[in-house]
Specification:
five-stranded mixed sheet; 4 domains; single chain; alpha/beta; 17 helices
Length: 386
């Protein structure tokens, strides 16, 4: 059956994904590097609990592909198992088991035997906790008591000194929690972890130099000039991100006087991506019709200084949890849900698609405008500014 949906990642891309993840890169940064959406990266990472899967290798001493080809040639020539074993320098029992597990003398094929061996090497090995029920019960009990995996591992080593069956590393505990496919420790036990994370992060992962939780040099909406407040002067906009399924977003911009709307395609929520998209979109407008932008408190506009320097547009930020301070934008986002219901994957819409939706909103009469359209008001403002 042919594969449907979006193409997955190649083995090389997955290796790069896990290398970047262990180096502390964000989901959006990894997605950009691989040409994939951040949500696709998240799906892969969270399925493994944030822990890179081990690279499966052949056991030392296992048969190689060239040896299997030699076995196949020997069988075709009618040689005995002992003779084939002698040529390869292997024991006759090794050759006998290889032939038996791969359909016998008449049906043995080197390529098929090699593929079966590789699949066996990829098969997940039983988790230590899954095969030691007393240890598993003890670990679960201590997690419920809010002990950290590291505390549990250290306590077990001291308490059961000399009993290796009651020793387990803290990394194994984390893996058993975060990789739920193992079916060893219940997902509910993660709620007892101090960090409340749903997946593991590498030791090199750090928020140093990142913009999470902070907006450097943010100018408060309280410092916005009075002329913006009364909507008397056109050219002042409000903006925010509209969110959809699979961590997808579009940027929404609304001019305060005319309620004219622009929708902007963004491929990620990180500040670099959002700022680049806004700069590109704003660059299509005459400079006279955008003097300021008031944004929500989200860190997607943490790099607002770069936006302002590039566009010569002042940026103001609302107070935390105060959506009414961007009333026009909030109202417009509500109207947009007619076209983008909650749960919609917004990454599936092109910029042309978004432009068409914006055109529909901009040519609808609005009660707040005396049943004029946003386009009428906006075009009038353009004519006045020359």
């Amino acid at each position: 059956m042919p594969r449907t949906g979006r193409p997955g990642l190649s083995a090389e891309q997955k290796l790069e994904l896990w290398t970047r993840w262990k180096n502390g890169e964000s989901l959006s940064d990894i997605g950009r590097a691989l040409g994939k959406h951040a949500a696709s990266v998240f799906t892969i990472v969270v399925a493994k609990g944030g822990i890179a899967p081990a690279i499966r290798r052949r056991r030392p001493g296992s048969l190689t592909q060239s040896e299997r080809e030699e076995i196949s040639r020997g069988l075709s020539a009618g040689h005995s198992q002992q003779r084939i074993a002698s040529v390869l320098g292997r024991s006759a029992s090794t050759i006998s088991r290889e032939i038996t597990r791969n359909d016998g003398r008449q049906a043995y094929r080197a390529a098929k035997a090699e593929e079966r061996a590789m699949q066996s090497a990829l098969r997940p090995k039983p988790c230590f906790l899954s095969t030691h029920s007393a240890l598993r019960a003890m670990v679960a009990q201590k997690l419920q008591e809010q002990w950290s995996p590291q505390q549990i591992a250290g306590w077990l080593k001291i308490t059961f000194d000399g009993d290796e069956t009651m020793h387990v590393s803290h990394e194994t505990i984390y893996k058993s929690l975060f990789i739920q496919a193992r079916g060893v420790l219940k997902k509910e036990l993660m709620a007892h972890l101090r960090s409340r994370r749903i997946m593991r992060r590498g030791k090199t992962a750090s928020t140093a130099g990142q913009t999470r939780g902070q907006i450097i040099d943010a100018v408060s909406i309280r410092d916005r000039p009075a002329e913006i407040e009364d909507r008397a002067v056109p050219g002042h906009w409000e903006g925010d991100l509209l969110s959809g399924a699979k961590n997808s977003h579009i940027a929404t911009l609304v001019e305060r006087t005319s309620r004219f709307v622009m929708l902007v395609q963004v491929k990620g929520k990180d500040s670099n991506t959002v700022v680049d998209a806004l700069i590109r979109q704003v660059g299509q407008l005459p400079k006279s019709v955008m003097a300021s932008l008031t944004w929500d408190r989200g860190t997607e506009l943490a790099y607002h200084t770069r936006f302002s320097v590039t566009t010569d547009i002042s940026v103001y930020f609302c107070d935390p949890q105060s959506p009414w301070q961007r009333g026009s934008n909030e109202n417009t986002n509500g109207l947009l849900r007619q076209y983008f219901p909650k749960g919609t994957d917004l990454s599936s819409f092109s910029q042309d698609d978004l432009d068409q939706v914006a055109l529909k909103l901009n040519t609808r009469p609005r009660k707040t405008l005396g049943y004029a359209t946003p386009s009428d008001r906006f075009n009038a403002a353009l004519a006045l500014t020359g």
